[in-house]
Specification:
The chain contains no helices and nine strands.
Length: 110
Amino acid sequence: ASCGGDEVVKLSESANGTTVNVDDGNIIELSLKANPTTGFAWAITTVDENILLQTSDSTYDADSDALGSGGVETFNFGTIKSGTTTLELAYTQAGATEPGDPFKVTLNVE
């Protein structure tokens, strides 16, 4: 998914374990399934902030108004300069000592 500057590159669970090429100046929008009512949330565990920087707090959109329904948590990142970084997040329960399910993507910023 290589695009021109300032374009939004949308990533989801399907990008887990892959390498994605993006242009410097692109915005990365990462959307992952989540359910905060369970006490679990995505947390960034690895990223080179010299290459990729989170531009705002993550947002959450529920799939429905039903109590306990899941939804999607979205993270936005801006590319700072060219290089390669691993972006890794863990789906972890608050207060847990063990990290939860990982999400990992390698980004080549060109």
